Amino acid sequence: MSARAGIVVTGTEVLTGRVADRNGPWVADRLLELGVELAHITICGDRAADIEAQLRFLAAEGVDLIVTTGGLGPTADDMTVETVARFCGRELVLDTELEATIAGILRSLMARYTGVDFDAVMAANRKQAMVPAGAQVIDPVGTAPGVVVPGSPVVMVLPGPPRELQAMWPSAVASDIVAQAIAGRTVYHQDTVRMFGLAESALAETLREAQRTVGDFSALEITTCLRRGEVEMVTRYEPHSAAVYAQLMALVRERHGSMVFSEDGSLVDDQVAALLAGRRIATAESCTAGMVAARLTDRPGSSAYVAGGIVAYANEAKTALLGVDAALIDAHGAVSQEVAEAMAAGALDRFGADTAVATTGIAGPGGGTADKPVGTVWFCVRLADGTTVSRSLRLPGDRSDIRERSTTVAMHLLRRTLRGEAGSA
Amino acid sequence: MSARAGIVVTGTEVLTGRVADRNGPWVADRLLELGVELAHITICGDRAADIEAQLRFLAAEGVDLIVTTGGLGPTADDMTVETVARFCGRELVLDTELEATIAGILRSLMARYTGVDFDAVMAANRKQAMVPAGAQVIDPVGTAPGVVVPGSPVVMVLPGPPRELQAMWPSAVASDIVAQAIAGRTVYHQDTVRMFGLAESALAETLREAQRTVGDFSALEITTCLRRGEVEMVTRYEPHSAAVYAQLMALVRERHGSMVFSEDGSLVDDQVAALLAGRRIATAESCTAGMVAARLTDRPGSSAYVAGGIVAYANEAKTALLGVDAALIDAHGAVSQEVAEAMAAGALDRFGADTAVATTGIAGPGGGTADKPVGTVWFCVRLADGTTVSRSLRLPGDRSDIRERSTTVAMHLLRRTLRGEAGSA
């Protein structure tokens, strides 16, 4: 059995949502790498009773390790160390060596300010040198030291600022106390598969079939989620169950082969970037209005293959900037295969590119008709050799969903066209 | 005493940090507006035992209301309703009316796919129509209904996708069951002030002064945070402390007047949209590569004033598409006041617009020099009457921070120029 852990995030600003917690996910990732199973993250404000309740809860759930973040500062609302000491039944004692370390740090910080009473500051910070008896001190990166308190569970107390917590993590994990707590851990494999064009319920159906037909299926811990229009399946398993995962994947490929675009954790963005190496792409966007260009240039080095793009929001811009015949727009409407193709051709031409992608659609909330309701979007990818692939979709959701989803669809159409697979899209 | 609540966020993808939780903070805000005190947020994976442990913990802590998010989908790892029913000691029963509602929704969704077995999908989704006996159903916005289960505590079960949860919240809160759970609450005022160009520490200094000079200052619960380059200050107070808040705001205006751009909760996006009414804007983007155009068109109705834009990522595109003289780029570099101004002039001209905004900068990680390090960005806003306002900044952070922050700076430069305030920027 694997070691289990819980994370206690303290801080009223986090609880009330004014500041997004970045420590929980970061520590979760580190624990996973160590093969420690994270069972719970709990968040509470700067109140001793609530912090202590969460510590008791996690201990009662039998976790081997609790990591706390936040509440180590010099002010009165910073009470994590004191609360953890009480919870662990240990006295707080002044660590004079630590006090000297903190004084040294403060002295050099103070040097930047004038008129500061160093003794007053030091008095306020003395509480940061009070540690639970028998705990191991983790040297501060800012001014707040961490502590690792032995016991069952072991409690690792770290500061709230992510930069400090992350820098102090390696020493905290290296301590003997933590090593003992997480001994006997199992290291898991984790594999990610991404699919596009698949309903989440169709994958659910496949997983139900796998449950019936794949032996030892329960050795796999599978989670699925819908992200940016893609279905993502993450599977965790112990190394000896690799064959079970292989059987599951054989079934997934058999049923959804053409929709599986990534089995190695890569994103469609990674794949499109690789396919664009040595090429030169231009965009022509109406409803996505720059989101496809922004996404293509999101990664470092994209200037090697992105020439640029035109946001042709108004019809006159489609004509003036992309050379789309106004008569074509009159005849078919701005949201049509003809206009999407003319936009892509215009982008190729104006930028001297060899690859172009175009989007034109109705993002809403207004502008829909019976024929072309809100969510109707035409996409076209055109290459310099004349290859032209067009698709239309009716996307669900609100304006922001439709624009976001359209951007993802454009990326997938690019991927399939550049791989020469678009015929099967 | 005010009603207390806890939030249970379920989902292995959230626990393990693959997806950031957006529901906890959102629900926390709504509870505070309702005068309900949030005590704990707990996060666990898709495991019935862990979900149930968190429900028991919150009940033992005496909360009046538990809100759960996530785990309402059709797949086997969606188990929140079942777990809540067991926790509340209620049978799951098929709600046939709800089943018909879900079937109707699915039928219209399926229309987009071909070769889907509707009966199989419906079977997979039948579990979504199973509700705890005596619970009130909250109609689905996606395909997953919510439920409100009476008892002590009351448990409100909502779906994970933020768009669905947010749309379903008003009906859930309006239910009699919830009303009884949160009776006797204190209603708070909440005011938001947004500042641009201010260091968070300068605001902290002002708040320390307010603590000394404003009577009954402790009646205000203030949180500050830095978001998208803007400092946001949110203050909650009981209605009888409105005068204390007014004193605080007098001090904030006195010290940071020109940086305060919003006291009514409006975003810079709202203000720019209002200022653009009756105008026609075009963008010319290099480092932001479409993000300014995407942000301007984010809101419904923006087609009334957005003509379009040009993403001139490559230098040749700046010349070919925006008419920037190649000699100007050679002389001053692509990241320069001269090129930013020529780009804005080009956008005005090519789109026949009366307002243009241009960005050109070094987003990194490569491309920086001693003179123009990574983060150097030039901005220009130009109006048809010849008004030309240019600014340069050195923005901190990584590629994505620099692009995001540049987009915000462009919005603020637009706002100030259109208000005729740019001289004081």
TrEMBL record, chains A, B:
Residues 6-180 form the MoaB/Mog domain. CDD domains: cinA (cd00885). InterPro entries: CinA (IPR050101), CinA-like_C (IPR036653), CinA_C (IPR008136), Competence-induced_CinA (IPR008135), MoaB/Mog-like_dom_sf (IPR036425), MoaB/Mog_dom (IPR001453). Transmembrane segments: none annotated. SMART domains: MoCF_biosynth. PANTHER family: NICOTINAMIDE-NUCLEOTIDE AMIDOHYDROLASE PNCC, NMN AMIDOHYDROLASE-LIKE PROTEIN YFAY. HAMAP family: CinA_B (MF_00226_B). Belongs to the CinA family. This is CinA-like protein.
